[in-house]
Amino acid sequence: MAPRSFWKGYLKLSLVTCPVAMTPAISEEDKVRFRTLNGKTGNPVVSRYVDGVTGKAVGEDDEVKGYPRGEDDYVMLEDEEIEAVALESTRTIDIETFVPRETIEWIWYDAPHFLVPNDTVGEEAFSVIREAMAATGTVGISRLVLYRRERAVMLEPRGKGIVLWTLRYGDEVREEKDYFMGMKAGKPEAKALSLVKTLIKERTKPWDPKMADDPVQDRLLDIIATKKKGRKRPAKAKTPPPTSGNVINIMDALRNSIKAEGKGK
Prior knowledge:
Blueprint: E1 7-13, E2 16-24, E3 65-70, E4 73-77, H1 79-83, E5 92-94, E6 97-100, E7 109-117, H2 123-136, E8 138-146, E9 149-158, E10 161-167, H3 177-180, H4 190-203, H5 215-228, H6 250-263
Parallel strand pairs: 1-5
Antiparallel strand pairs: 1-2, 2-7, 3-4, 6-8, 7-10, 8-9, 9-10
Helix pairs in contact: 4-6
């Protein structure tokens, strides 16, 4: 059974409009979560906002957003004022621009969502937009209010549906040249390059989602299951030995690596 959609609205291209529904493509439902407890009583600890000057609790109705304009001086904005800034993009994904798919680098991608038609009448319009993007190798760029902020989004055709990616804001993405410009541009030795290619070939496998498993979470679940049964805590996981800091010849290291790969098979 597919998860329930968390957003419903309209996909629009010029005069073509169709109702759509959207669901996050990733989930954290199975992630291990903890509550903070009072170690003496075992009771849950409750957090609350307090006034930084008076120390008194602040009611939910009294909470507002503040933009600092000086020391201990803020411009206060109500939630309604913030939400009113981008009302037009709250329920409509209006595609005004298309760009070649390969021109948007991965660093701009934020969070993926599955976008599907929300009724049978709108399926034709939805499929025409999707197939036209696929045929031209383009993706659509629009704006949408999600998670209480308006953001740029990218629409990418995928199978029978569309993946909508929220894009990072321009001031969030750093220039790579600021970090890579100090590196030497010289090409590596041909023999070393050949040996690394051999290592890559030895370790190349088809992608498997299990490669992205979380061993720490699996270990935590083992500890929780053991404690539920009233047993002692499982043995502590072994810490890998520290890597030697000795500088060795790169060619020797590569040759030894390839020998080790061969013995491991």
